[in-house]
TrEMBL record:
One of its GO terms (molecular function) is manganese ion binding. One of its GO terms (cellular component) is apoplast. InterPro entries: Cupin_1, Germin, Germin_Mn-BS, RmlC-like_jellyroll, RmlC_Cupin_sf. This is Germin-like protein. Residues 1-18 form the signal peptide.
Length: 209
């Protein structure tokens, strides 16, 4: 009887150890699927896979929105692959804005480290939640909801944002509508904007049609 119990315990311990996988460093030489990247062979994993040094420098904010996001997602930081986490740096120059956008793949936590940021989101019931955040303030944005960040001071603002996904995705509403070849007549019917407004926004954002 004791031999059987001992055998079963050994089998349980062996099975538990066999099922444990500490990490799945992304193999960036292959495609990224819905479940992330395939795992690198353990023998090829190094400490550099778990270290990202790209968030110490400001992003380039010389663009139409005067904002820059420096991501440390699985595509840039293979160590987060499969872990359900990632991080990024947000830089907002004076007058900068990250327009209404969503992250289909994850919720977001924003921590302000410099300046003032007006941030907010819109619930699926169309309730609006927004506030001016200062250094040390934290705000959350639930997965999939439209949200935005605007520089609310006269100096550059910086924040770090973390996500509940190694690849949260991004869709900026204005770019989705006006920066592609979606026919203007369809944009007009689905947004209630007139033709002149649609053509003007497409000209600004590089859209056609």
């Amino acid at each position: 009887m004791y031999h059987i119990i001992f055998f079963l315990l050994q089998l349980l311990i062996f099975s538990s150890h066999a099922a444990v996988q500490d990490f799945c460093v992304g193999d960036l030489t292959g495609p990224e699927g819905p479940a992330g990247y395939s795992c690198k062979k353990p023998a090829t994993v190094t400490v550099d896979d778990f270290v990202f040094s790209g968030l110490g420098m400001p992003g380039n904010t010389t663009n139409i929105i005067k904002a820059a996001v420096t991501p440390a997602f699985s595509a840039q930081f293979p160590g987060v692959n499969g872990l359900g986490i990632s991080i990024a740096r947000l830089d907002l120059a004076a007058g900068g804005v990250v327009p209404l956008h969503t992250h289909p793949g994850g919720s977001e936590v924003l921590v302000v480290v410099q300046g003032y940021i007006l941030a907010g989101f819109i619930s699926s019931a169309n309730s609006v939640y927004y506030k001016i955040l200062k250094k040390g303030d934290v705000m959350i944005f639930p997965q999939g909801l439209l949200h935005f960040q605007i520089n609310a001071g006269g100096i550059p603002a910086v924040a770090f944002v973390s996500f509940s996904s190694p690849s949260p995705g991004l869709q900026i509403t204005a770019f989705a509508l006006f920066a592609n070849n979606l026919p203007s007549v369809l944009v007009e019917k689905t947004t209630f904007l007139d033709d002149a407004q649609v053509k003007k926004l497409k000209a600004v954002l590089g859209g056609t049609g």
